[in-house]
């Protein structure tokens, strides 16, 4: 049996593609005028690039080869979430006055277990610095949102996600937490490592061919919800991570950087809450 260190791009890609299909079920119903307008604008944008950069036939064929490979590796979810989703997120959340959000990314899995003791599912010997996270969920009016739900998922201290890398328990570092009547929650987990886009798939090929880097800073993913309020999807980051400045997925915002405190016993504690906009 393989360990998480033997993860393969085409496997995590296939997993992300499968998870997305399940979430999408029948698919969306976009009216023809919208499809026409956006498809035309997208094609015109591509035509403009070809003219601006004078794309050669050799380059056009390289592009075709690469696009075919993205599909073969199941990396459309990864590609779109890394290089496109941040603009969709921006356009669709700019009206909010509550907490800033960020992109969902390709590795969310719904219905993670709800641990009674506030400890996220993890291995007995889970590597990484233990992290105790307390916070409160409130409305934009400042009212505590009792019974709010915080879903948390993140990579382990080696940078791998359960269900997308081999050798990890199904729900490792994935949990659903219920806030108390005051909207307060306490979650125990471990600090994640930075995440490297798989280097052995199509997205990795683009990164190498363009001489970019493949890194996202260490991050926690959350979905925070409460009845009558907009669902908040966000990511939280750790100060001092060099990739907070040059995240390949352009998903870091200053409001999303935590202020963790060294508890002096080898663990870290952090207080960070959420303000949800009315639905
Ligand atoms: C990730 O872990 C992630 O959060 C995003 C947005 C893209 C790729 C991997
Ligand atoms: Fe992530």
Task: Give your account of this protein's structure.
The protein is of the alpha+beta class and 279 residues long. It is 29% helix and 19% strand. The strands form three sheets. Strands 1, 4, 9, 10 and 11 form a five-stranded mixed β-sheet that branches. A four-stranded antiparallel β-sheet has the order 3-2-7-8, with no helix packed on it. It has a two-stranded antiparallel sheet with strand order 5-6. A hairpin with a 6-residue loop joins β7 and β8. α3 packs antiparallel against α6. The longest helix is centred in the N-terminal third of the chain and has 22 residues. The protein is globular. The N and C termini lie far apart (47 Å). The model has no long low-confidence stretch (mean pLDDT 97).
Helix/strand-derived category reads alpha+beta
Overall form: globular
- Compute the CA-based radius of gyration: 20 Å
What fraction of residues sit in β-strands? 15-25%
Range of helix content: 25-40%
The helix count comes to: 6
Low-confidence stretches: none
Question: Major beta sheet, specifics?
Answer: 5 strands, mixed
Number of strands: 11
Name the ligand types: 3-methylcatechol, fe (iii) ion
Distance between the termini: 47 Å
Average predicted confidence as pLDDT = 97
**H and E string:** HHHHHEEEEEHEEEEEE
């Amino acid at each position: 049996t393989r360990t998480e260190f033997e993860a393969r791009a085409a496997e995590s890609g296939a997993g992300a593609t499968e998870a997305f299909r399940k979430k999408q079920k029948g698919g969306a119903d976009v009216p023809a005028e919208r499809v026409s307008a956006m498809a035309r604008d997208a094609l015109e944008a591509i035509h403009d690039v070809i003219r601006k950069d004078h794309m050669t036939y050799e380059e056009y064929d390289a592009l075709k080869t690469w696009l075919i490979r993205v599909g073969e590796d199941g990396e459309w979810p990864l590609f779109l979430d890394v290089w496109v989703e941040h603009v969709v997120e921006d356009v669709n959340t700019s009206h909010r006055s509550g907490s800033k959000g960020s992109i969902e990314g390709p590795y969310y899995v719904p219905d993670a277990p709800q641990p009674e003791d506030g400890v996220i599912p993890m291995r007995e010997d889970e590597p990484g610095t233990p992290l105790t996270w307390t916070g409160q969920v409130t409305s934009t009016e400042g009212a505590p949102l009792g019974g709010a739900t915080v879903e948390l998922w993140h990579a382990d201290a080696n940078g791998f996600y359960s269900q997308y890398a081999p050798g990890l328990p199904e729900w490792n570092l994935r949990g659903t937490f219920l806030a108390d009547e005051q909207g307060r929650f306490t979650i125990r987990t471990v600090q994640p490592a930075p995440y490297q886009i798989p280097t052995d798939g199509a997205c990795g090929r683009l990164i190498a061919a363009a001489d970019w880097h493949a890194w996202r800073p260490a991050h926690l993913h959350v979905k925070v919800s409460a009845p009558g309020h907009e669902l908040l999807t966000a990511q939280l980051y750790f100060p001092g991570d060099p990739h907070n400045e040059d995240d390949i997925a352009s998903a870091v915002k200053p409001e999303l950087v935590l202020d963790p405190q060294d508890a002096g016993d080898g663990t870290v504690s952090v207080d960070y809450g959420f303000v949800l906009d009315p639905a």
